[in-house]
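Co-fold these.
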Amino acid sequence: MPEMFQVLPPVEALKVLFDQLSPNVMTENVDTAEALDRVLIEKLTAPSSLPSFPRSTMDGYAVRAKDTFGATESLPAYLNVIGEVPMGRGFELEVGLAQAAIVYTGGMIPPGADAVVMVERTQKLDAKNIEVLRAVAPGENVIEVGEDVKEGEPLFDSGHILRPQDLGGLMALGITKVTVAARPRVAIVSTGDEVVPPEQTPGLGQVRDVNTYTIAGLAARSGGIPQQKGIIRDDYDCLFSATREALDTADVLVVSAGSSVSTRDLTADVVNNLGKPGVVVHGVAVRPGKPTVLGVCNGKPVIGLPGNPVSAMVVAGLFLVPLLWRLQGLVKPPARQRVTAILAHNIASVTGREDFVQVRLVERESELRAEPIFGKSNLIYTLVKSEGMVCVPLDSNGLHKGERVEVELF
Amino acid sequence: MPEMFQVLPPVEALKVLFDQLSPNVMTENVDTAEALDRVLIEKLTAPSSLPSFPRSTMDGYAVRAKDTFGATESLPAYLNVIGEVPMGRGFELEVGLAQAAIVYTGGMIPPGADAVVMVERTQKLDAKNIEVLRAVAPGENVIEVGEDVKEGEPLFDSGHILRPQDLGGLMALGITKVTVAARPRVAIVSTGDEVVPPEQTPGLGQVRDVNTYTIAGLAARSGGIPQQKGIIRDDYDCLFSATREALDTADVLVVSAGSSVSTRDLTADVVNNLGKPGVVVHGVAVRPGKPTVLGVCNGKPVIGLPGNPVSAMVVAGLFLVPLLWRLQGLVKPPARQRVTAILAHNIASVTGREDFVQVRLVERESELRAEPIFGKSNLIYTLVKSEGMVCVPLDSNGLHKGERVEVELF
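Predicted complex below.
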């Protein structure tokens, strides 16, 4: 007989789990060059101004702007060229009255000068003299000290996921090391007397392990480090010792449960004995995925997934993904990619439960249509053939053909 | 004096580059478990049917459906229980007339049976006999052989990027190795007499290297393996020998050019001498990023980026990203994440050029607004402070405040 589930909506179930976890984030100090897509766990301000010297944005002549005032093609300003500012070095001379110095894009504006005349707006008279054919304003074609970022200016908040341009911005200021969230190690244990490793040819009644690989993929995409712990028999002692050992060297334990009611109870029993408080949620108002187990054992979160491939993916998306981001210091996981589409068929549901339905996306008459792929939640290929999922919310009893729906891509 | 650019629109420039490349894709054979986010370069069909035996989707009794026809709570069908189908094994007996066998979710349906009665719809009379309280139809609560996928059915086309569920689907069929595109090795050379490594304190007139890191990040996100080749002086011989060496062990060469006109010519000269045909595009109708160099040297693509951080990112996004996907067998790169937003200010442009403007996204009165961040393209922090880019198309002379625009996130 099935046990009575105390079934919580997914959002509430997640809250119950999070409430049992320490708010502390495990961190590590890494090279900025290696920190792409990591979550920054420090608040950074600019240690110095950028640029640290005024720079030219053009190839041309650094001048005192007022020496060019009124200059035109017919009435040019005459300037004396005192030298060339070499790239990557300073300049010993000061640009004085009616003087100019050759500068290149990115080069330093020498003392005395406050603007740059583009080379195209000048005419060379001889090696030492030029005509300026158009006036420049003070600051024209110049990047001022601190124009990019000023010393002490806030750069990043804690919880920022580092993008390619952020690495560049940090390097520009000489911040070559950063404190980021440690990547959570996710131990994945598959159970089931019928489950065999993929490289083995299944005998009669046997199936190959699927969930270890789908869950590892999801964990990796959420910043986790998957640890594949193999397949454990549906036996309390075996499962208990395998999961206890797995938790020792992991930050999160995922048990892909056997799919029958008896083996579901096994996961809950094991979680209750692995550490305190044990199971905190047993059963979630979601389909597929109702027989989900959420637990915490001595500070480490444990997720018991239903054995069906589709249920396992849906539940891992609802709980493992936000959990991994939360362990990396993010209150809200990064938004998954979504598109809006027209629903091609009705989806029936019942209120009081979130339903997740896989859909294929089809472009028809320049309109994106979401075609539900109905199929038993045991079928891995309904996931393979779909491009995303549609959620029927808790308070809805279904979605109608022709409705605009949000499709979360995966 | 600046050279005359033969300026092509970005799409055409990319086509010129692609036309010079071999259509062949370099591949490697990898473990499916390690193939997340890799591009599959083979067409796969199912080597066998899945499941390979009929499975129960419920805990209950495997029966001959017709033996239950007409059964109700008041007039149940009486069946004789001949045994239990163990998980992961076959069953030696055949279910005959008025017989039943205990089955668990995921277990095998024994010979003779064609449906499963849920345990909740039965009543136990004694160890060997049950009452069935509701009829089942043939096939009810059963996954038929091949219901997930049939032997010979197409699974994936070449060019598919492998997702977590795809790995699971492959493993389910015992496909533990796959042929995927090799990850292109991207050698990144920074040039500039003013550029110093980030760990060094810049002297007067010097700046730290930024582009090596932003480009490495972009390359990694596009499936490439960045190889950081350091900073090379603005000198033909130095650049030539450094890039020739870099190309030897890379599939793509990116030169982040010095920003002055003279050093831009340097990149083009070097590319023309590294191999045939050399430079194929010099100058692109894009802002920022006009002085882009695209070349092919003995079959290997070379991209000469403008030195400014923003220009370098824009140009790498337009050319390096699709190039890397193309080298991995994708004609079209995967869609970048986009959102629609209301433009908060006018953006001026000119026709005949694509303009890319960084924007910050701000939620105001439940409406997403895109606020352009105007700034010289030399400023890395305009990229850091923005969440995406808006493109002003080739044939437009600007976008208006209040317009709905597509923002490509980065």
